[in-house]
Amino acid sequence: MFPSNLFEKKHVLVGVTGCIAAYKSCELIRYLVTQHAEVRVMLTAGGEKFITPLTLETLSGHPVYREMFPEHQFTATHHIHLADWSDAAILAPATANIIGKLANGIADDFVSTTLLALHSPLVIAPAMNTHMWFNPAVQRNVRLLEKAGHLICSPEEGFLAEGYSGIGRLARLEYLIQYLYRALHPAPKSLEGKTVLITAGATREYFDPVRMITNPSTGKMGFALAWEAFARGAQVILIHGITELTPPVQVESYRVTSARDMYEQVQQCFPRADIFISAAAVADYRPKTVSTEKIKKKSSSFTIELEPTEDIIKEMAKQKQDHQKVVGFAMETSQARENALKKFASKQLDMIVLNDLTVRGAGFGVDTNRVTLFDSTREQELKLMSKLDVAREIFDFLLSQN
User: Which of 248, 309, 303, 253 is nearest to 281 (CA)?
Assistant: First the structure.
């Protein structure tokens, strides 16, 4: 997951319904609180069978909304006030029952009534038995809600409470947050109808079966860019090296190993792209020959002859059509600005992002970055911020080009 200042001080309404996955809402609430969001929780009678109001009150720091007509504490129109208060809402877990109510305009408890009054974005994260999920009535209701503009964070496949596997498990926390980020985004349709191709992470160039030339890139910047493009409504293609990160949901992703692998996959996908962002840390050289067996230590020195790898971004810039934009990254340790501008000009890019490794908080394996953005007429230096917030600034800069 990626921290972001987008959650800060936002009003997020969390609805919890009657499902065994209700306990997972605790992790969601806790994460939002750590991101400095204002969180309110509403709980159905069924949800209360699986998790106590006290637990949710403790995590959110506020009373839990349960009763439509409480004797004390709230006003008679508290469901409307709560709907008006919300910047975004999420139903996690969402049962077949609550999905049916929302799809058909039924308001018979506090949660369903409040959601019918909601006029902020709503994320619905279904969780149920796999046979219930594939019931035609449930699928029809989900399609109706999606057509109405709600965001559906589909359930995952896995081991279910009934003792067998199937699709129906509540989506993992990373996916819930990814959808909430989209729901809260200030420009959720700014890339609608566009396809964004992104490369991320390190390549590996083996010189025998167990040794390789690589770098410490984790892929965090590229994955953050994929989150951002998804949040803006784009179709996203993510080509990444070996990484421990979870690929974003609803993103077309390809895992590759070498620079050649990445080049070939980019070549296949590039014609579909409106924007290509080369954020991967691709090796500039690879071993000229690769041993089929492990090379044994025989002397005090060892020499590897190298040859250049494919220059992916340069080749794509040569192939680009009028409707396409190509964005590169320049990771530098000296003469950073000069080297970045030289790369920008020599590879005929539309934009370049300078990432200076000498700056504290920037570089490999951290959640933050500090970059400078360049195009043919502008230069914008960003302060230190999370990589997801950097990704948002990158797209803002790119989309503001004349």
Answer: 309
DSSP 382: P
Encoded tokens for 287: 């071993």
Residue 78's pLDDT band, with cuts at 50, 70 and 90, is confident
Q: What is the CATH number of domain 5-184?
A: 3.40.50.1950
Of 322, 310, 313, 315, the residue nearest 353 (C-alpha): 313
Tokens of 347: 């590879």
Q: What is the pLDDT of residues 21-44, one digit of tens each?
A: 999 999 999 999 999 999 999 999
Nearest 5°: phi and psi at 217?
Answer: -60, 135
pLDDT > 80? residue 178: yes
DSSP assigned state of 87? S
Of residues 5, 129, 135, 215, which has the active-site annotation? Answer: 215
Question: Any idea where the domains of the chain sit in the sequence?
Answer: 5-184, 195-399
Q: Find how far residue 263's CA is from the centre of its chain.
A: 24
Angle among Cα 112, 113, 119 to the nearest 5 degrees reads 95
Is 215 among the residues known to form the active site? yes
Q: In this model, does residue 70 exceed pLDDT 80?
A: no
Provide the whole-model pTM: 0.95
Two structure tokens written together for 292: 């089929």
> Over 80: is that where the pLDDT of 72 sits?
no
Instruction: Write the single-letter amino acid at 29.
Output: I
Q: How many helices (H) and strands (E) does the chain have?
A: 14, 21
* Contact indicator for 182, 191 with CB cutoff of 8 Å: no
User: Percent helix, strand, coil in the chain (nearest 5)?
Assistant: 35, 25, 40
Given CATH 3.40.50.10300, say whether it is the number of domain 195-399. yes
